[in-house]
Amino acid sequence: MTAARLVPVVALICVMALSACANTVRGVGRDINATADAVEDSID
């Protein structure tokens, strides 16, 4: 495989990996927020 064909493939893989990480981080943030809300509700 030549470099001219390899660069777009590698770039596409990197973009897909980064977008998957963004969704995961957003999901973790929502989970933490839901846990904090549940703890707050149980205290009241």
Note down, in words, how this protein is organized.
The chain has 44 residues and is mostly helical. Helix content is 93%, strand content 0%. The chain contains one helix and no strands. It has one helix at residues 3-43. The termini are far apart.
Distance between the termini: 63 Å
Total E-strand runs: 0
Rounded to an integer in angstroms, the radius of gyration calculated over CA atoms is 19 Å
Number of helices: 1
Oligomer kind: single chain
Judging from the principal axes of the Cα atoms, what is the shape? rod-shaped
Summarize model confidence as the mean pLDDT: 86
Which stretches are low in confidence, meaning pLDDT under 50 for 5 or more residues running? none
Strand residues, percent: under 5%
- Fraction of residues in H or I helices: over 70%
The string of secondary-structure elements, in order, is H
> Would you tell me the structural class of the helices and strands?
mainly alpha
Taking the sheet with the most strands, its summary is: none
Task: Set out the fold topology.
Layout: H1 3-43
Key descriptive features of the protein:
44 residues, mainly alpha, 1 helix, 93% helix, rod-shaped
Write a short abstract of this structure.
This protein is mainly alpha-helical and 44 residues long. Helix content is 93%, strand content 0%.
